Amino acid sequence: MRFRDLKKQSNKNNQTTDKKQTINPTYYIYRIKALIVDLFMIYMPIMYIMTYGVLDGKEALQGSSIAPLIATIIYGFIYAAFLSRTGQTPGKKAYEIKVVDSKTFENIGFFRAFLRFFVFLFTVTTLIGLFLPVLRKDNKLLHDILLSTTIKAFPSLEK
Predict the structure, then answer these.
(1) HEC states along the chain?
(2) What is the phi/psi pair of residue 152, to 5°?
(3) Could you give the angle at the alpha carbon of 118 between the alpha carbons of 103 and 65, nearest 5°?
């Protein structure tokens, strides 16, 4: 076989493996929009139930330090259940993005998704990792880096 043919075959193999293993990072704004949708679709109903179903109203919620923590933990469980089952929360589904493992591109497990949620809370609280997408080529946030996850965009969002 000639060298030219071998090189063409090698390039063909590299192109097919590159397509399988590279995922274009999603636009940062879609991640923010997906978070806002999730907050309104999941967290707000939890807070409403906590305020008016469990407690005696907004004064009781404002006076309680444990109720918002319990609501956040419940939200974390629901968030982790969505991510471990389908890789998408309702907000991520609306914007056609999916959370997957960085190496295998498969869905992540429940414990890892739950841990990702709390690392995300730390990231948002301290503002450390929110500016990382500006500095990195792959647009990963701190919780994506620490837990080896990435955001997969469906073909309509990919460049």
Answers:
(1) CCHHHHHHHHHHHHHHHHHHHCCCCCCHHHHHHHHHHHHHHHHHHHHHHHHHHHCCCHHHHHHCCCHHHHHHHHHHHHHHHHHHHCCCCHHHHHCCEEEEECCCCCCCCHHHHHHHHHHHHHHHHHCCHHHHHHHCCCCCCHHHHHCCEEEEECCCCCC
(2) -100, 125
(3) 175
User: Could you count the other beta carbons within 10 Å of the beta carbon of residue 7?
Assistant: 10
- Alpha-carbon distance of 84 to 109, in angstroms, equals 5
**Residue written as tokens 């139930």?**
49
- Which pair of structure tokens corresponds to residue 23? 């995922």
Question: What's the token pair of residue 58?
Answer: 């907004």
Which residues does 22 contact at the CB level (< 8 Å), separation at least 6?
A: none
**Backbone conformation region of residue 120, classed left if phi is above 0, alpha if psi is from -120 to 50, else beta:** alpha
Does the structure show a pLDDT above 60 at 19?
Answer: no
pLDDT digits (tens, 9 = 90+) for 120-145: 998 888 877 777 777 877 778 888 88
Q: Compute CA 31 distance to the chain's CA centroid, rounded to the nearest angstrom.
A: 8
Half-sphere exposure of 95 (CA within 13 A, CB side): 21
